[in-house]
Specification:
The complex is a heterodimer. Chain A is of the alpha/beta class. Helices cover 35% and strands 28% of the residues of chain A. Chain A has one domain: Rossmann fold (3-Layer(aba) Sandwich). In chain A, strands 6-7-8-3-9-10 form a 6-stranded mixed β-sheet. In chain A, helix 6 links the parallel strand 7 and strand 8. The radius of gyration of chain A is 17 Å and the shape is globular. In chain A, 48% of the residues are buried. The model of chain A has no long low-confidence stretch (mean pLDDT 87). In chain B, helix 1 packs across helix 10, helix 2 packs across helix 10 and helix 2 runs antiparallel to helix 11. In chain B, a hairpin with a 4-residue loop joins strand 6 and strand 7. By secondary structure, chain B is α+β, with helices and mostly antiparallel strands. Chain B starts with a helix and ends with a helix. The mean pLDDT of chain B is 85. Chain B has 12 helices and 10 strands. Classes of the chains: A alpha/beta, B alpha+beta. Chains A and B meet through helix 2 and helix 3 of A and helix 1, helix 9 and helix 12 of B.
Chain lengths: 231, 402
């Protein structure tokens, strides 16, 4: 499998001087296209910081970060915004949908904000994705009219809208009941298998981690174990 | 831009009460702007109309020329003192040549060739000084609206009639149909029948002015041909200075605008207009502060959404666009609403020229509606820039983390 993303000697320090806190301490990680990886580790280990850096929302203090042959540490803010829009999808623990918009409008947002309008093709893709996540009957519902599980499935559809190579999910099932969590996880696996979208899922849930083919453990800001399941 | 507009509109319509109050606030500000414009403009028109409505807007006369000194110095120099002959009246002998072109000038409402002079009205033992104006019989009301301000009689002049002010009539104890003797400063005396009494509300005219026909004035002032001056009334008296310059260039004569003799009135009107502008500026500042504070609150309230949009790939320009368009929409909608309310409220007021004494001289035509809407929209756009920039600086990491 070809390399999608590679970080080397990644360091992230917050604050300066005596109050400086080094969250990532020379972390190395490579993700291949089609990976379905779980990011494990105790709270404060640096998982969220790593996801934020990989999502180009934050720059590392030092180290290299290359994705799709583009050096993220040298890219401008506008370039990172554009790259993020086209190549990276996000699923957060809290769905973070736009409350004044419908499910479909939320899903097509990444495409529409890139081209400046909601095209017919984008709406068609949005409907397909909502159908795929089992919400074809909720297309025009405001997000305030959806349950927690439904909102999270809309968030998954939104993350996939631009056919990103990488989807970063931060505790995507952490706020859901067991049944909804299971459905969302099944959905992620299905999309990974069918579209070869790379997933990096931060989780505390060992069952979720076990469902992934790869488990990356982060302790004290470094990846200490990288296990690949054969199943 | 279309997508920015969609977001801006959705944000405004999703908080209907807040948006409604904001638009109402802007509309009230615009209403104040329109009201002050109409009031100050109407008051100005009212004052000008009442003060100079019955006088000439441009007066054309022969320029007074000093005679050339014909003595040539033989050797050395000559010291001479020349005293101007004040009794001599300048005569326009070539008036007939350019009167037609003045009458056809665009913007000229009326042209009145006149013979003027001083004299006395004699009735029994009473003698009252009088300023006599000889006008064309059919143009009695061309400059001063005598016809509309007649207290009794009629505004009709013949070779043997005169129209005088009510004050003069009271002082002399005469009425319509009675005869007065008019003696000019040339020593000519004529008996004329009083056909009308006017009251223009201007003391100098009501107590001292007498109108006669041009023919009567010719005999009174011993003027066989020519006239003394031409009085011109314009459609727009504020353009009098420009017209005076044009007419002077056209005729080679001295043309004087009404503003030259009413500097204090002009100064007063200017001060009044400045006061109005100040009040309007305060109204605009209030609108700007109101819009800015409301949008800043909206920015704060929508920080999580802005962060998510940025995370999903929305550029800073997109976020700025959403908030600037919100400001623009508030400005346009509030501005148009305020202008419409202003027009509806002001329309029932009578126009200044018809305003009753003691009433509000509000001129709905001078509401400056378009200016109010344009300035409000520009103000609202400026007001939205600060919140928009604040929104664009929202860090998605902070928002997602919280």
């Amino acid at each position: 499998m070809s390399t999608l993303l590679e970080v080397r000697d990644l360091v992230k320090t917050f604050g300066e001087g005596e109050t400086a806190t080094r969250v990532l301490r020379g972390l190395n990680l490579t993700l291949a296209q089609g990976d379905l990886a779980a990011l494990l580790g105790p709270s404060g280990s640096g998982k969220s910081t790593l996801l934020t850096i990989l999502g180009t929302l934050m720059r590392p203090t030092s180290g290299s970060h290359v994705m799709l042959s583009m050096d993220m540490t040298r890219a401008s803010d506008a370039e990172l915004t554009d790259f993020r829009n086209r190549h990276i999808g996000f699923v957060f623990q809290f769905h973070h949908l736009l409350p004044d918009f419908t499910a479909l409008e939320n899903v097509v947002f990444p495409t529409a904000v890139g081209v400046g309008r909601e095209t017919r093709a984008a709406k068609e893709r949005g409907r397909e994705l909502l159908q795929r996540v089992g919400l074809s009957d909720r297309v025009h519902f405001r997000t305030t009219q959806l349950s927690g599980g439904q909102k999270q499935r809309v968030a998954v559809a939104r993350a996939l809208m631009n056919r990103p190579e990488l989807v970063l999910a931060d505790e995507p099932t952490g706020n859901l009941d067991r049944e909804s969590a299971g459905r969302v996880m099944e959905l992620l696996k299905e999309i990974n298998k069918e579209e070869r979208t790379t997933f990096l899922i931060s989780t505390h849930d060992e069952k979720i981690a076990a469902a992934c083919r790869r488990q990356v453990r982060v302790v004290d800001g470094t990846a200490v174990a990288d296990e690949v399941s054969l199943s | 831009m279309i997508y920015c507009f969609k977001f801006a509109w959705r944000y405004l319509t999703s908080s209907k009460l807040q948006t409604g109050l904001l638009v109402l606030g802007v509309a009230v500000g615009v209403f104040v702007f329109v009201f002050i414009s109409a009031l100050i403009g109407g008051l100005g028109s009212f004052l000008v109309d009442r003060t100079v409505g019955d006088i000439s807007h441009v007066t054309v006369e022969t320029p007074r020329l000093d005679p050339v000194l014909l003595m040539a110095p033989a050797d050395g120099s000559i010291q001479a003192v020349y005293q101007r002959e004040v009794g001599q009246r300048e005569i326009l002998r070539t008036a007939d040549a350019f009167l037609p072109s003045l009458e056809t000038l665009v913007g000229v409402k009326a042209v009145s060739p006149q013979i003027i002079g001083n004299g006395f009205v004699i009735r029994g033992q009473s003698r009252a000084p009088v300023a006599v104006t000889g006008v064309e019989s059919q143009k009695v009301s061309a400059i001063a609206d005598i016809a509309s301000n007649l207290r009794s009689g009629e505004a009709r002049l013949t070779n043997s009639t005169v129209i005088i002010g009510v004050r003069m009539a009271d002082d002399l104890g005469i009425g319509v149909g009675q005869i007065i003797n008019l003696q000019s400063d040339r020593g000519v005396e004529r008996s004329l029948v009083v056909t009308g009494l006017f009251s223009l509300g201007v003391e100098a005219l009501d107590a001292r002015a007498a109108f006669v026909s041009l023919a009567a004035a010719r005999s009174l002032f011993d003027l066989e041909q020519g006239i003394n001056r031409i009085e011109i009334k314009l459609d727009d008296l504020e353009a009098a200075d420009d017209y005076a310059q044009r007419i002077a260039a056209m005729t080679g004569l001295k043309a004087t605008s009404w503003t030259e003799g009413n500097a204090q009135l002009i100064e007063g009107l200017s001060a009044q207009a400045n006061s109005g502008d100040l009040i309007k500026a305060f109204a605009l500042v209030t609108i700007v502060i109101g819009v800015a504070s409301a949008l800043l609150l909206s920015t704060y309230r929508r920080r999580p959404e802005i962060g998510i949009m940025r995370a999903m790939g929305a550029s800073r320009a997109f976020v700025v666009g959403v908030f600037v368009i919100q400001g623009t929409l508030i400005g346009v909608i509030g501005g148009v609403a305020g202008a419409i309310i202003g027009y509806l409220v002001l329309s029932p007021f009578p126009l200044p020229e018809n305003a009753p004494p003691g009433g509000f001289p509000i001129d709905a035509r001078q509401g400056a509606y378009a200016v109010a809407v344009v300035l409000t929209t520009i103000g609202a756009i400026f007001a939205s820039i600060l919140p928009a920039r604040a929104a664009a600086r929202v860090d998605p990491v902070e928002v997602i983390g919280s």
